[in-house]
Structures are given as C-alpha cells and as structure tokens.
C-alpha cells in the first residue's frame, strides 16, 4: 500500500478548526440527545425530529477525522484505499446530511399543518408514529446515496466516482432536485405561510381570545427553533451542494480550494445546532444547565 502526505499552513488551520468543531459539536449534540431522553417535558414530535438532526450531526462529526486523514494522506492503492473511499470518505456523512435535509422537510411540513391548518388532520405526527417517519427518512437517505457506496472508488490517488460521465451527471441532477431544490422551495413555502399565520394575520382582541394568544405564543417558540435550524442548514449546506454539483462535472477546473472552504462551512453547521437550541428554547437551555450541573445525570 502506497501513501502520500500533503500538509501546508492552510491545512493546519483547517485541522485546528476541525478539532474545534468536533469538540463543540459532539458535546452539544450529545447533550441534545440526552436532554430529550432524560426530560419528559422535552419529549415532543418536534424535539424527536431535532434529536434525529442531532444524530445526523454526530455522524458527520464522528467521520470528520477520517475525511481529514483521507484528504491529507492519500492512499494510492490497495484494499485499505478502497475501504477508506467507500465507507470513510464523504459517503456516510453525505447520507447523514441527506437525512438531515429530509428531516427538516418533514419538520417544516408537520409545523405547517400544526400552525396553518390545525383543524385538518393532514400531515400530523404523533409520539407514537414519529419513529416511523424517522426510519423512513434514513431509509430514503441510504437509498439515495447507495451509488456512492457501490461506485465510490476509481483506484486513483483521489476518491472519485467510478461511473460514466453521463451517468454521474444524471445522478447529480436527481440528487440536487431531491435533496436541495425541492426541499428548499417546500421548506420556504411552509415557513412563509407559518410566519404569515403567526405574525402577520390581524389579531382579534377580547377575553375569549386569551387562550388563542397563549397557544400562538407556544407555537411561535416551537417554530423559531425549527426555522433558525433550517436557515442555518441552508446557509451552511448550499455552498457544499453547489461545490459537489460543479465537481461532478469538472473537478480539475473548479479546484479543491472552494471544496475545502465549503467543507468547513458544512461541518460548522453540525456544531452550531445545539447553540441554536440553547438560544431559542428556554426548555433546552434549562435542561442543558441541569445536565451539566449533575454529573450522574449524564450516565
């Protein structure tokens, strides 16, 4: 097995950022999972979907060191090179990312029906059924990235697809439509309608509307979390999606610099979500404080 090590000043900075993202992100996302598991008050369909996002982020951050090793130490041939490319390259994190996007899509549709059309059954998830939605999300994400696992290595110094150009172009277009363009427009539509319903509709004044106002306040808090998480994901994931799209057509012309910068932003999102939960939700903030104060609670 041959290998080649490539490191420069920029690479050292990227590695330092990677260590920082991994440390903050793993700790924060594990706190999210434990908080929902330990605190009954946090067990809601929305929070279960946020836990699924946290699991996706944990997978992303766990595989980040392997991606770094593969980027800086190129295994030029052998079984290890094949194995590293197929399972420890961007493939597993890409599956997790697709699961995140689909989860955000499910979350936006569920919130839309809960806020805009509460009197209709529509797409309303319950605690008894939300796990079916989560399983379906991961099954779809795995199916969508399956070609990467099958054709992920071309036995060159870099991990590249082993598909004909016309096949990879068609596949990339399908992926872009399925997990980037369609989710973006659906999520945007859902949250625009939600914001219109909660903030822009004229409010009726009267004693009989006190309960309605309180209910809207609760809905606003729930929507804020999912809205900010969705915005963060769009900001952090879109550069990576565009980079992958361009690299699929001509990696040499586009270059690895933009790919690396997009990767930093991509993994930053995995570390930032728990901070968003903490800032936007007093329940999560209180749960985090209690868990950090109580050592035995983390066991």
Automatic annotation (TrEMBL):
Stretches of the chain forming a coiled coil according to its record: none
One GO term describing the cellular component: plasma membrane
Compartment(s): Membrane
Primary location recorded for the protein, binned into one broad class: membrane
Listed transmembrane segments: 12-37, 49-75, 87-109, 130-151, 171-194, 225-249, 261-279
Bilayer topology annotation: Multi-pass membrane protein
Domain G-protein coupled receptors family 1 profile: 28-277
Species of origin: Actinia tenebrosa (Australian red waratah sea anemone)
Keywords: G-protein coupled receptor, Membrane, Receptor, Transducer, Transmembrane, Transmembrane helix
Keyword Zinc: no
Protein name: Somatostatin receptor type 5-like
UniProt KW NAD keyword: no
InterPro entries per UniProt: GPCR_Rhodpsn, GPCR_Rhodpsn_7TM
One Pfam family per UniProt: 7tm_1
Family of the protein in this entry: Belongs to the G-protein coupled receptor 1 family.
One Gene Ontology MF term: G protein-coupled receptor activity
